[in-house]
Amino acid sequence: RPVRLAADRRRRTRRPARFSGTRQCAVCGDGKAHSQPADFDTGEGLTGPVDLKNWSAIILAAGGSRRFGAHKLLADLAGEPVIARTVGAVCSAGFGEVIVVGGAEHDRVSAALSGLSCQTAHAADWAEGMSASIRAGVSALEQKGEGLFLFLGDMPLVPVQLFDELATMAKASGYAARPLCGEVPGHPVAF
């Protein structure tokens, strides 16, 4: 299944990205590098890499992990909590602002992020669903930048190498961009 990026001009219109090479699958998470067809094209308006210092990142880390049996974001992954690995990868990309939204186990999630260049926000109404976490994250933004990336906290292998392309595509489309694996949409999403 090829991984590609899709830019949305309107809510239901997708246009796939232009790039070739191999990438680790950002959607199915199988750890395999899928080949990228070279003939995908978003059309005119694409420019070179975007300066992510002008972009913000919100990482959603508020869920209760009911199905996992324990708080999965605090689970150990090669000596570090999953959330610390995810946030570390996002911070390494050079976003102007990184906000981690906690809810269930907010204090423990915040403690796991010690030493990382991020802010935390608390979604007190996290049990209402992901939209509550997004509202809390957007409310915590201090910088008014070019755009916003939305990440899931349980993606420690987040594809950092795709961030510039996603930001470029979101700007060119005037709406948003996201990775696709086949026809399955994934994260992060850039607006």
What does this structure look like?
The protein is α/β, with parallel strands linked by helices and 191 residues long. 21% of the residues lie in helices and 28% in strands. The protein is built from four helices and 13 strands. It has helices at 82-92, 106-112, 130-140, 163-173, and strands spanning 3-8, 14-16, 21-24, 33-36, 55-61, 76-77, 80-81, 97-102, 119-122, 147-152, 176-181, 184-185, 189-190. A five-stranded mixed beta sheet has the order 9-8-5-10-13, with helices on both faces. Strands 2-1-11-12 form a four-stranded antiparallel beta sheet. A hairpin with a 2-residue loop joins strand 6 and strand 7. The two termini are 25 Å apart. Residues 8-29 and 31-45 have low confidence and may be disordered.
Name the shape in a single word. globular
What is the helix tally?
A: 4
Low-pLDDT runs of 5+ residues are 8-29, 31-45
Fraction of residues in H or I helices:
10-25%
> Quick one: how many beta strands?
13
- The radius of gyration over CA amounts to 16 Å
Characterize the largest beta sheet: strand count, sense, and whether it forms a barrel: 5 strands, mixed
Distance between the termini: 25 Å
Structural class: alpha/beta
Q: Could you give the order of the helices and strands? A: EEEEEEEHEHEHEHEEE
Instruction: Assess the beta-strand content as a share of residues.
Output: 25-35%
In spatial order, strands of the major sheet run 9-8-5-10-13
Averaged pLDDT: 77
